[in-house]
Amino acid sequence: MKIVEIKHPLVRHKLGLMRICDISTKRFRELSSELGSLLTYVATDDLEVEIVTIKGWCGLVKIARIKGKKITVVPILRAGLGMMNGVLEHLPSARISIIGIYRNEITFEPIPYFHKLVSNINERMAMVLDPMLATGGSIIAAIDLLKKFGCNNIKVLSIVAAPEGIEALEEKHPDIELYLASIDQKINKNGYIIPGFGDAGDKTFGTK
Ligand SMILES: O=P(O)(O)OC[C@H]1O[C@H](OP(=O)(O)OP(=O)(O)O)[C@H](O)[C@@H]1O
Ligand SMILES: O=c1cc[nH]c(=O)[nH]1
Ligand SMILES: [Mg+2]
């Protein structure tokens, strides 16, 4: 599995701000989106371009243009939605497929509760968004679903990940690519990433 932990100072700075314990909902949401944008910049560095000739101000000029790549952005409800606007800044024409999954609080098993995928998803590259990769169960379940519908070109954008979750994801889906702002230390006994930033869904939506 290709794993890219982005060490860019802007990414590290914004991630640091997200870890402040009394961060407001507004600020957490803004930073999720900004990191979604920065992760997308890196995750799309292999998009194919074609050279076309256009009429410029001083005559004909050759320019690069992204070659009609079909992309679907796949936020995992709820917390993945916080990253979505930042991702769409760079991919404004991408279609959106939604997958709803929550974790059982005791067993940490992922419970899928909703999906609405774009048609012909087998022809698209999927960019799965979820800020937290803890046990990996939720992202693995989302990828299982995408593959069931024939989508095999998959990149995952997460903000923080625990080593345990990365290992589980690599075992189940070694063919995907994973882009991260940070590989954190571990998962605690309650299933939270340490240091992480707590419950990303609650912080994004102001619940609890
Ligand atoms: O890697 P895992 O162990 O599966 O944990 C990560 C998942 O947990 C959180 O979702 P949560 O169940 O809190 O739902 P929410 O986003 O609606 O709050 C988070 O947003 C991930 O989807
Ligand atoms: O640290 C964690 C782990 C799972 N889900 C979260 O929102 N945070
Ligand atoms: Mg949550």
How are the SSEs ordered, and which strands pair?
Blueprint: E1 2-5, H1 9-18, H2 25-43, E2 49-56, E3 59-66, E4 71-77, H3 81-90, E5 95-96, E6 98-103, E7 110-116, E8 125-129, E9 132-133, H4 137-148, E10 153-161, H5 163-172, E11 177-183, E12 186-187, E13 193-194, H6 200-205
Parallel strand pairs: 1-11, 4-5, 4-6, 4-8, 8-10, 9-10, 10-11
Antiparallel strand pairs: 2-3, 6-7, 12-13
Helix pairs in contact: 1-2, 2-3
The site of uracil (URA) has 10 residues, from helix 6.
Domain Phosphoribosyltransferase: 7-207
Binding site for uracil: 193, 198-200
Function: Catalyzes the conversion of uracil and 5-phospho-alpha-D-ribose 1-diphosphate (PRPP) to UMP and diphosphate.
Low-pLDDT segments, ≥5 res? none
Give the overall form.
globular
Bound molecules: 1-O-pyrophosphono-5-O-phosphono-alpha-D-ribofuranose, uracil, magnesium ion
Main sheet, how many strands, which sense, barrel? 9 strands, mixed
Q: What does the radius of gyration come to?
A: 18 Å
Give the N-terminus to C-terminus distance in angstroms: 36 Å
- Sheet/helix structural class: alpha/beta
Helical percentage: 25-40%
Distinct helical segment count: 6
How much strand?
Answer: 25-35%
Count every beta strand, where a strand is a DSSP E run of 2 or more residues.
13
Keywords: Allosteric enzyme, Glycosyltransferase, GTP-binding, Magnesium, Nucleotide-binding, Transferase
Binding site for 5-phospho-alpha-D-ribose 1-diphosphate: 78, 103, 130-138, 199
Domain Phosphoribosyltransferase: 7-207
Family: Belongs to the UPRTase family.
